[in-house]
């Protein structure tokens, strides 16, 4: 919320300054400008104070103020007609998106639909305008040219700005409420640049060019002149709309293919950041909940299913699912495993106030869109499902554990009739085949827990549903490791990978900056793009229905099928 708070204080000051300055252009309702600007400043300042002094303010109250400052901005920009405040939508809408955070499926779909509809309208209107400019260039009738260019002007000052703003603002909101961000991925940043470039070019020269050609055409019509004299100015107008049309088509292709990967800034988001354990809470036998507060700034946005790497004081790096977020702080839940690899024991010993390092989040277990969901959790495998059930409505949860006392969050979950608690000391082993046979077509089945539970679910899965799994420990791998060579495309280096060595180790000799964390094929941090060859997937990141993918691999455990593979490294 720090970014939203700072933006609100800036916006409040900006609104006061604008109220003291004269408008750039004549207003439709000038008497409303100053009182609405002062009200906007008051709303923005009040909301900023709430975020700064009362961060536990109910989310509904914060969103109410957020919507109010957006509506005031829209009223000033489009009803009153203040052009400068119209551009302030680029502050008001991102602030609302930051306040909203991760959207539930319904609002997210509505936002995607609004973005798609406004983008389609923008392309359609631009196509119509380009068609009119072609008619203006090719007609021999000067009166027709006058009518055509007047129509172009009407489109340019009415429908096109609305379509541009609607598309750009819904795109900003989508970027800020999803993992895509605004400048984290090259294709998203390119789309943002395209939208802004088209809008600024419209204000910079297109509107004036259209006005000039109309004036010239009217003068020629009055004097009986020829349309030939319009070719130069008409060509400028055609280019002024034709180039944006090509840019919009390029933006559509960017959305479809999502090329380019992450930007340098986006890759830096995986860097370590310091957090402090603000509190620890016992939530079950041998299970503690840790709340992680950033020491500076705010933590990155995340989506249900995401996990983080915790770099412990001992230097151990361990992965934990994000179980939730409270007031901008991550929540992770840790089961103490005395015979594990040491990370859980160390975390259980850390008191509140301890500083540790955090990497991520990353999400290799995302919540897909589906008509309904069945979540099957075993023990600590409940943690990734907590934010998932909070984000959806049509779901069922089957939760198995050793005993009720050992099942984290059992008390909170037990009051929901969509939840079935199955403590092993009270209930028999569940009939998974019968449970899964009754799922509706299209159901997304999610499973996380002990390996025995995962295998049983995999064996009982019906055809009408799709299974998604996440493992906390790697599966046993018995496949023969054959030698091969890997071409690192960016550097042009070819590395030999013998049978007893991992591809990740070979890559690190050439490029030690490639991300890696668990090195067991679980976390997905070492993901690389495959440009040629066929990967031999041996990881636990890809789902069963993704095992035929040839565009990505996890080199810590996966290898090549054949003698050579080409990587985007």
Automatic annotation (TrEMBL):
Cofactor(s), names only, from the UniProt record: FAD
SUPFAM superfamilies: 2Fe-2S ferredoxin-like, Ferredoxin reductase-like, C-terminal NADP-linked domain, Riboflavin synthase domain-like
Superkingdom as given in the UniProt entry: Bacteria
Chain ranges of the 2Fe-2S ferredoxin-type domain: 484-569
GO MF term list: 2 iron, 2 sulfur cluster binding; metal ion binding; oxidoreductase activity
Presence of the UniProt keyword Membrane in the record: yes
Keyword vocabulary terms for this entry: 2Fe-2S, Flavoprotein, Iron, Iron-sulfur, Membrane, Metal-binding, Oxidoreductase, Transmembrane, Transmembrane helix
Matches recorded under PROSITE patterns: 2FE2S_FER_1 (PS00197), 2FE2S_FER_2 (PS51085), FAD_FR (PS51384)
Domain FAD-binding FR-type: 270-368
InterPro entries per UniProt: 2Fe-2S_ferredoxin-like_sf, 2Fe-2S_ferredoxin-type, 2Fe2S_fd_BS, Beta-grasp_dom_sf, FAD-bd_FR_type, FNR_nucleotide-bd, MRET, Riboflavin_synthase-like_b-brl
Regions that span the bilayer: 36-54, 61-78, 84-103, 110-137, 157-176, 188-206, 236-257
Protein name from the UniProt record: Ferredoxin-NADP reductase
Source organism (scientific name): Kribbella shirazensis
Upper lineage: Bacteria, Bacillati, Actinomycetota, Actinomycetes, Propionibacteriales
